[in-house]
Amino acid sequence: MSSKVHNQYLPDYVSPPGETLLEVLEERGMSQADLADRTGRPKKTISEIINGKAAITTDTALQLERVLGISASFWNSREQKYREFLARQQEQARLQVQIAWLEKVPVKEMIKLGWIEKSKEKVEQLQIVLNFFGVVSPEQCDVYWGTKALAFRKSVAFESDRIATNAWLRKGELDAQKIECAPYDAEKFKRALEEIRSLTVENPKEAISKVKQLCAAAGVVVVLVPSLKGVRASGVTRWLTPTKALIQLSFRYKRDDRFWFTFFHESGHVLQERKRDVFIETDEKKDYDPNDAMEKGADEFAANLLIPKQPLQQFLENGKLDDREISLFATELGIAPAIVVGRLHHDGVLAYNRGNNLRRKIDWDDFV
């Protein structure tokens, strides 16, 4: 699990370093005035330090080391811990009034999936969620991810549940950060896609580890992240760095043909190398702009890589679209029969109630 906070030791109270300074002075029979004279500091400053109204600066810490023989690092550490304690107290008070924001976040789902830990304390739960998103407050979460949203393709998918979609995107980002990969190489990635094409005959669950390895060697990270309620995104492509691309896929695919087409569609976006753009896909045709050149280009890339135009045209000219002929054609191409069925359905040359027994169902339970 990620975003841990409650394994840290956070004391309920940290005394100001001035209290320690006062104890040292009393032990040595030294007055505040004596210390002021020895350090050259105003008496008022010494009094404010002892009463916690003024901080021990690095210069003062060095002076205390000279006068009292207690290292400057000790005084600096005491001051730093005290100031951190005060800052945490202020943060606790600030977050206390922002707890209601948690109601907008799919916290229970995220806990169930192991993305975040559960806490009985509301403020701590809020801290865990903010740690997950990598922001300091609900306001900054809205600002940061709202800015990110401007890069996301305008679609119903993103608007369906913005915070849940943000969480899904963030989880993919976090998973991808853990994966090492070579610098992006377009030609190497194209060769990897040719090899992955032959893996479509395997069940996606069995082939995915090979897919990840081949892509990582070409500078593309592939992660599978289960979808949250309200998130209609089935895939996303974006660049984490100029040399590291991310293809993020959800578990929304129930059939192997949809899984593979979406993967190759996202791969098409990678090859477009629009490194400032983010492309989110859904299973809903109504979410897409038919005039979107980038989407059309990715569709054409995936379609033609999986089933080249000329062999498809020759197959259609034969006029035989039964399961046997589809399977033979798929074998000739070296791809899964389901991909041929999906293409024929999409092109409207095969009724949607035909060929479905050649499409394999995918059970993602082992991935969750």
TrEMBL record:
Sequence intervals crossing the membrane: none
UniProt xrefs under InterPro entries: Cro/C1-type_HTH, IrrE_HExxH, Lambda_DNA-bd_dom_sf, Rad_response_metalloprotease, Toxin_antidote_HigA
Pfam families: HTH_3, Peptidase_M78
PROSITE patterns: HTH_CROC1
GO MF terms, alphabetically ordered: DNA binding
SUPFAM superfamilies linked: lambda repressor-like DNA-binding domains
HTH cro/C1-type domain span: 21-75
Similarity-based family: Belongs to the short-chain fatty acyl-CoA assimilation regulator (ScfR) family.
Classification via PANTHER family: ANTITOXIN HIGA1, BLL0069 PROTEIN
Name assigned to this protein: HigA family addiction module antitoxin
Record organism: Tumidithrix elongata BACA0141
